[in-house]
C-alpha cells in the first residue's frame, strides 16, 4: 500500500489520526549473496537523484559499532536491504552512488559504520541537522516525517538486536521504512531552508560533517560510569577504573556490550563497599547475576589490585581537562572570565532565539567557554573571527556571532575604564 492510499483513523489522538507509513513496493529480500549484490549495485548506479541511506547497529548488545544492516532507496532503483556481514566490504555499492548526494538522518551516527564497510559519501544531506537549523522542537526521523510529511512511523524495533540472524520480517519492515520517505523529506526540508534563508547555512554544515576529523578517544573513559557521583575517594575511584578496564577487555574480546558483561551499578557498588575478600564481593546484590558471577575471579583480582596500589598511582579525584575548568568554578577562580562567559552566553542565546536555532547549533558551547576563559590578546572583530574559525566555526556562524562575542570579551575592560 502506498502512503497516498492510507486514510486517517477515527481517533481523538492527533498522532493516531496520521496515516501509517507503509512500504510502497513491498518488503524486498535481504541481499546476502554476491550475485544479488551485483544486481543491486547496477540498479543503484542507474538510478536518478539523491540516495537515501541508513544503517542499523546493535548498540546495547555488541561491543563493536559495526553495521548489521544497510538500507538504501533511490528513484528508479527502488529500495534495498543489504546484510553487510557476508561481504565485509560494500565498496562496490558505495562506489556506484559516490557521485550523488546521500540523504542520511543523523549522519554522525552512521558515517563511521558505513565507512567501515567501504561506503564513504562525498556529499550528504542530514535531515536531522536540517531540522535543527529550522527550529523543529523534535528532530527524530519519526517526528520530522510526521510534522513535515504527515505520516506516522513505527517505532517498536528501534532498540532491537540487529546482529540477530535471521532478521525477523517485522524488523525488516521497520528498517525499510527508515528510507521510505527520506527523499521526500529532504526535498520538503530544502524548500523550507530556502524560504528561511538558511540553505547556505545547511550546505556549510553538511560539508563540515564530511570534513570533520576522526573523533579522538576521550581521556579516562571509565569516569563515564553511571553512578560515579556516589564514589567518594581516590581508592574507590581506583576500583572503578580497575573493574571498568577488566570489563572492557572481556566485552571487546567477546563483542558483547560492556553493560551485559557487568552493569555499571555493580562497579559502583563494589567501589563503594570496598570488599576485603572475594566472599564478601559475591554477596553484593549487583554481583549475583549470571554475567557477573561468570567472571568473578577477574572482578576480584581487579579490586584486589586497586586496593594494593600505592597512593601515588591512585586516580585524581576530578577528571582531566584539555580546556577550561568547569564553568561552575569560574566565579571563584576568575570572576572576569565568569563575567565574559555570562555576557557571551546571553548574546549567543539571543541570536539563536531570533533565528529559531538551538544555541548549540549556532555555536559550540565549548568554543564559547574557551574564548571566554582565555581570550586572545588585543581582542577585536578580526581576532575573534579568526579564533572562531580556528575552532571549526563555519562562516555563517562567525557572521552571526563574532561581533557580539567581541563585545562580550571587551565589556569587562570597558567597565573598568
From TrEMBL:
Q: Name one Pfam family in it.
A: DNA_pol_A_exoN
Annotated GO MF terms? 3'-5' exonuclease activity; nucleic acid binding; nucleotide binding
The residue ranges of the HRDC domain are 233-313
Example of a GO biological process term:
nucleobase-containing compound metabolic process
Q: Where is this region: Disordered?
A: 310-332
Q: Check the record and name the SMART domains matching this protein.
A: 35EXOc, HRDC
What protein name is recorded for this chain? Ribonuclease D
Q: Which organism is it from?
A: Kribbella speibonae
